[in-house]
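Bench notes, bay 3.
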Amino acid sequence: MWILSLLMILILSSLTGHQVVVMADDAVSTAKANSLDSSLQEYAYRALVKPKIGTFYNATTQLPSNFTGVTLAALRLRSGSLRRYDIPNYNEFQIPKGLVQTPYVKRLVLVYQNLGNNNNWSSNYYPLPPNHTYLAPLLGLVAYNGSDLFATNLSHLNLNVAAGHPIIVRFRNVKSPPPGTLPKCVRFDLFGASHFTNVTGGNTCSTFQQGHFSIVLQYSTPPPPTITISPLPSP
């Protein structure tokens, strides 16, 4: 019944263009995702040695071997700079001016995550609803307090587009969907809920908030095999 209800909601979303929100029902998955964020935040900050404001720092080299396939970067900014300036190319993210972070901090760091083409990372930490599969790597954009670069286990800052244009995510590696299917953008918010919206141009999603993003496809469940019962032989 849950799967049927979700299917009807997604069909309605396709017809109306409205966003669909699926609340997380697995607290373990949400806790795992938050734990991964904390680890990646710590490794990203290790790349910020005497960092210059507004400079991208590749933090992938800070990752241990068990993070093979993951790409990581960090960008340190002054408080309020996101309201006044845009960031046209932070890897796949195009960030417009007008973003507001709360609570107030003197410095903030935008951590970029790319969990790569290994679906084990995406599926284990950000499981999709039944009958869905990833077509693109899972990308993360998360804001943290950047005042103390030795801090660990930081909480996320709230980051929202106050006005103007949304954040654009242009995926570079998207698998081709089967003919006649309709891929969807998915955003996992920082509380574990997944939000589904329409893809534009085959590889582009938009958002007014931070989180984790990908392009996914809903597929049909194969019908059960037909069982043919042969008549019993005559005695």
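Next record in the batch:
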Amino acid sequence: MALLRWILHVSTLILGGLLGDHYDDAPG
């Protein structure tokens, strides 16, 4: 489903931004 893919995409961006402050290897 496109909706599921969109949710996963947004979640990845959010998590990537949060984890990016602690892990240099985090995507984004």
